[in-house]
Amino acid sequence: MQVRRRKKRKRPVGESERKSRQKSALVEEVLRDAEKERKTRQKAAWIAEALRDGDKDRLSQLAVSEGGLLSDEVRVRVWPRLLGINMLETVTVLPGEEELSSHTEYNQVVLDVNRSLKRFPPGIEEAERPLLQDQLTRLIVRVLVAQPTLHYYQGYHDVAITFLLVVGEHIGYQIMERLSVSHLSKFMAPSMEQTMSLLQLMYPIIRLSNPSLHNHLVQSELGTIFALPWLITWFGHVLPDYSDVVRLYDFFLAGPPLMPVYLATAIVLYRQEEILATECEMSAVHGLLSRIPVDLPFESLLVSCQQLYEKFPPYTVEKEALLDLAKQKEERMKGRVVQSLPVKTYRQVLARIVIYGAPVLLGVVVWRVCMQG
Fold it and tell me: Are 219 and 163 part of one and the same domain?
């Protein structure tokens, strides 16, 4: 004989109990805010102490740690120190307007700067924007005049605009000139070859961290173009939240030049479930990864980024990437046919023709579309 059990009814919450829960939640929120404020004050004191002592290593640690450098007022003082720039000893001779406007890259810089309106924070008045655009153009061309062996690239203005907004034109120029011969130098080579080689470093890290994800990406023939705007703009072009961008710049300025590559890899690994659930086809996976979610947990991603760097340092990753390239070259020389997924649509056929026939051309086209978008 089947006995039916009566469902337990939820005990109705009385008015007094409901108010008690609300009060407890409010107290917890107040305590969290108070603890956050205490940590912020403590960190501000540590930063001020490190600035007084000229302790660059301590400033780097504080810039990397949770919350970064707290505010733009602090960044104005700390960012130059992180790059070893002493503004009191820096004396520069400013090129004239005629020299700037006659530079071979001047017109391209003006075009890119005119497309950068969306990078200005919403609070900036319309009347101020033309002045900021003039400052940004002048800042960039001054660097190109001072470093004639370097080449401007689309995306450079996205990096420069962040420094202009935070520290102003004069300090922004000093920072951009220093970064152009260090962290950004490979992007400013005559061709994209060195930049694409940096992006290729993502695959050995992914393979060593998650072989199944690596296989999915390789079989989909994804490549690395999806991450190109991330790398060359230090994520400035693809992140809509200004606070996220400056937080990442704290991290990148305090770390080695390859940190943007490791962060890009950390983001791909973080989204592994989404990627594996996506059809193993180039356009599908590229479409997913080329759109960065607005709610990424950057503080935890920066921790993962640091862990990846320590676990797989650049010299080991570069070695793995060279071995991968050598293996691919050997397979091509032997005439091996790489098995791939069945071609289902005309679009996929065309995509594979482009991939196998002109990968560099594809990279340049996609890159330009991304940067103009």
Answer: no
